[in-house]
Specification:
Elements lengths: L4 H11 L2 H11 L9 E5 L5 H9 L4 E6 L2 H13 L7 E5 L7 E5 L3 E3 L5 E6 L9 H10 L1 E12 L3 H9 L7 H10 L2 E6 L8 H4 E8 L4
Parallel strand pairs: 1-2, 1-6, 2-3, 6-7
Antiparallel strand pairs: 3-4, 4-5, 7-9, 8-9
The protein binds S-adenosylmethionine.
């Protein structure tokens, strides 16, 4: 992974308005699943998705994980600036290759329980996994039946491809990701971003996987 990711990501988030527009996308997303109590944001960056999900679901708690501690500090200050109770947020170090293995900060290693989250968000991170198919399966296994996986993935248009290449990011084709989620028992929707989400629409596309309820 490119070592300067933190600086250029923070710059894009703040000065290009990515943060505000990701927040807006999360807020406006049509979700059938309204009873969200536990959210996991994996490869969370400074928490644009996870923190906004806490705003949207006032009873929820968030576990935000990333491979870099610097980003986790960003999540804590982002949620504090936005006036969210700090006992609703916890953070931990984790590699997307094994998303269930988390070193909680300030301390303690944990293995996340299967089917324990209502909603998992990921954005532009699955492509950093050493085994993307296993990562997707592991993420889905952490979701309760009826829960959701929201992936705000890099898109396959010119700017998305260029940006992925620039940051050495190489995600599976979207059709392959969606097919795997379907094989794992989810109904999957592709959510293209309209111009109103500019500039996020230039590089990202949404994939929403709803895990089937037990019959
Ligand atoms: C492009 S940023 C995306 C952040 C956020 N999810 C978003 O949608 O804006 C990629 C994030 O993935 C994290 N990351 C990179 N490699 C990772 C890995 N192997 N495991 C977990 N996180 C990783 C980076 O530290 C960074 O926070």
């Amino acid at each position: 992974m490119n070592f300067n990711l933190y600086n250029s990501y923070s710059w894009a988030m703040n000065f290009l308005g990515f943060d505000r527009q990701i927040n807006r996308f999360v807020d406006e997303l049509s979700l059938e699943h309204q009873d969200v109590q536990r959210v996991l944001d994996v490869g969370c960056g400074t928490g644009a998705m996870g923190v906004q999900l806490l705003v949207r679901f006032p009873d929820a708690t968030l576990l935000a994980t990333d491979i870099q501690e610097r980003f986790l500090q960003g999540v804590l200050s982002n949620s504090e600036t936005r006036g969210l109770r700090q006992d609703r947020v916890s953070v931990g170090l984790s590699d997307i290759t094994k998303p269930a293995e988390v070193e909680l900060l300030p301390g303690g290693v944990t293995s996340l329980e299967m089917e324990s989250f209502d909603l998992i968000s990921v954005g532009a991170v699955i492509g950093y996994s050493e085994d993307q198919r296993e990562t997707i399966k592991a993420l889905l296994s952490l979701i309760k039946p009826g829960g959701l996986l929201l992936n705000l993935e890099m898109n396959e248009h010119m700017v998305g491809r260029w940006t992925s290449h620039r940051y050495e990011y190489d995600a599976l084709p979207l059709t392959e990701m969606a097919a795997l989620m379907a094989e794992e028992g989810c109904s999957v929707s592709r959510l293209p971003l309209s111009m109103k989400y500019f500039p996020v629409n230039m590089t990202r596309v949404g994939l929403l996987a709803a895990k089937k309820r037990l019959s």
